Amino acid sequence: MKVAIVGGTGAFGRALATRLAEIGRDDVVVGSRDPERGRSTAEELGVAGGRNQEVVRDVDLVVLAVKSNATLETAAELADAIGKTPVLCVASDLRFTEAGVLPGRHQGSLAEEVARIVRGPVVSGFQSFAAANVVQGDPGDALICGEDSDAKTLALELAEHLGARGIDAGPLANSRALEGMTSVILNVNRRYKAHAGIRLTGLP
To answer: What are the residue ranges spanned by the domains of the chain?
Structure first.
């Protein structure tokens, strides 16, 4: 499986690429709006890299790992280049207030909006992952939701490569809960100065 990480120069994208490179995956490419930054980051991490529009072509899965406020704009910019390739959206819409981190939406999810922009199937997941835990190979459970079974299988396989237990969390509408969960985890991490993740009990 060849994976393109859009936003691979950011903290979470770098964590994904770093871990995949460490376990010997040589089929990872990282992208950036700035092609030179993409290439230099890729060289630093030991993977391939370049401009976003270039790295998303001829891959099996595109991971949309840009900042949440750039997710929809980036999806629109890359829609033609991505074509019908499956997309994994890892973003969460959040509001940072004095009281704490809050969900940014009262209805819908970023992943559902991405699905209305790109032509390929969209799945959502990894919102409970802390970048530090990804690098260490212990990110917790990966809850993945989406409508397309083949796209979901790719995302679940990627999660397993990262050291996570991949769990099918149902249709894409459930991404609303996954994205909202991010605010809960961030508040916990802030309160306890931790890098908490999620693990479900009672599963075989």
So the answer is: 3-192
Convert the pLDDT of each residue in 36-48 to its tens digit: 888 899 899 889 9
Which listed CATH number (3.40.50.920, 3.65.10.20, 3.30.420.180, 3.40.50.720) goes with 3-192? 3.40.50.720
Q: What are the backbone angles phi and psi of residue 163, rounded to the nearest 5°?
A: 95, 10
| Distance of alpha carbon 129 from alpha carbon 202, whole angstroms | 20
What is the reported pTM? 0.95
Residues listed for the chain: 204
8-state DSSP, 66:
S
In this structure, which amino acid lies at residue 35?
A: P
Q: What single string gives the DSSP state of each residue in 72-115?
A: HHHHHHHHHHHTT--EEE----EEEETTEEEES-SSS-HHHHHH
